[in-house]
Amino acid sequence: MFNAHIINDVEEAMKKIGVSEDGIEIMREKGKFYGIKLEDIPLKAALLLKQEALAADMECALPWCTAALKCDTTDAILFGTERQFEILIEKMKKQPFKGKIIAEEMEESIENYRTYEFEIKARNYRINVPPVKIMGILNVTPDSFSDGGKYYTVENAVKRVHEMVREGADIIDIGGESSRPFSSPVSEEEELGRIIPVLENLDDLKVPISIDTYKPRVAEEALKRGASIVNDIYGLRKEGMAEVIKDYDAAVVIMHMKGEPKNMQLNPTYEDTVADIIRFLRNRIEFAISKGIEEDKIIIDPGIGFGKRVEDNLVILKNLNSFKSLGKPILIGTSRKSFIGKILNLDIEERLEGTIASNIVAVLKGASIVRVHDVKENIRAIKIAEAIMGASI
Predict the structure, then answer these.
(1) What CATH number matches the domain at 118-389, 1.10.1060.10, 3.40.640.10, 3.10.20.600, 3.20.20.20?
(2) Known catalytic residue at 215
(3) Does residue 381 have a pLDDT over 80?
(4) Which residue ranges make up each domain of the chain?
(5) Residue 337 designated active-site
(6) Domain 32-114: top CATH class
(7) What are the φ/ψ torsions at residue 263 (nearest 5 degrees)?
(8) Which member of 180, 308, 337, 351 is catalytic?
(9) CB count, 10 Å around CB of 65?
């Protein structure tokens, strides 16, 4: 028997059998395979793209309307090795009908996907990923879906923060307003009254603090008291938020949410869940940059549970690596959420195993930051996953 079997790490396997460094360098790009979807490209560009893709010995999938010349624009799916894409990109840069723009977008997507390491700059902090960072959740609210009321007093809140840091949390995310489905907003004054006393008792904290708010004034008051990240479920859609983040040199989590908490779960629908969310996040990244927020301060979050059906959440997690093409660290927050409860038919306090399983999938698919209630347990599980993924053959 010749023991034929599939390998995943082609480069490591070549080293193992003694292929020369020069040979590995030549063949490395041929062992990396990509699939890229392009949306709304002109028909003439699509036909040229198909022609050049075939010439590069790769594939370009187009809908029937392009062959019948019955559409003005179309989507296209390309798949091939990294080397084949390099050939295609160079050819498309010389083509008319937006060929250069198409080539540059493909080139950027592959580069973003391929070099997925970041130094996130959050005021005086530098957060390097990988390895995966753990964001511990502190809800200073009476009504959050999971631990509402549990840390409502300043003493309990501060105690829990220090406990999460001892357990290994890399970031602490503090929120003073519940964003559970069907919740109603609270006033700025009430939200500030919940979070400011906690922040003022965390002067000695050695990890960055994230403020979970969409209100510019709340964000600013928190930043004045030492917070360095704004976790914005509205994705900078509230007037003035981008300016506050820029002025205080803070980092930002731009999250996708369909609607708002009080109506986001009223029959949410998507034409293409992943593509729709990527389109939204790309738009908000461009908006943030236009407002002066530096690229290395931007984190993205597809918004698990925020205007998503169970199947939407599962599709996002399954395809999370698609979000890597945006070139930003990905934060994922599945902790104790309802899609886990619906799948397992379990109450909130029994969703730890489901949370860990979903977070391991997220990490394997490219998550840079995992937002959790149960810090210690998730850290242990993720360390094992990272050890497995880092093993050499």
Answers:
(1) 3.20.20.20
(2) no
(3) yes
(4) 1-28, 32-114, 118-389
(5) yes
(6) alpha beta
(7) -135, 5
(8) 337
(9) 14
